[in-house]
């Protein structure tokens, strides 16, 4: 093996190492960005869900109060 082949092999090995490291860094950055975006959309979804839950709970509470109120009104008439 002559000196040129040895140099080429070293260059190839170094290039592969650099490429692998770059890929890992890019993947980590993309994951971080995705997580941040998901967090923001999750906050919006949580707000929407909590608003919907409040509306639903209010309707349920009104129905429950109506039933209880009706029962209390009927009880004294006996």
Classify the helix fraction into a percent range.
over 70%
The chain-level mean pLDDT equals: 53
Structural class: mainly alpha
Written as H for each helix and E for each strand, in order along the chain, the element string is: H
The number of helical segments is 1
**Mind summarizing the main beta sheet?**
none
Give the termini distance in whole angstroms.
110 Å
C-alpha-based Rg, rounded: 33 Å
Sheet-strand content, in percent, reads under 5%
Unreliable segments of 5+ consecutive residues: 60-72
Shape: rod-shaped
Number of strands: 0
Biased composition (Low complexity): 36-52
Region (Disordered): 36-68
Could you characterize the architecture of this molecule?
The chain has 78 residues and is mostly helical. Helix content is 96%, strand content 0%. It has one helix at 3-77. The longest helix is centred in the middle third of the chain and has 75 residues, at 3-77. The model is unreliable at 60-72 (pLDDT under 50). Residues 36-68 are annotated as: Disordered. Residues 36-52 have a biased composition (Low complexity).
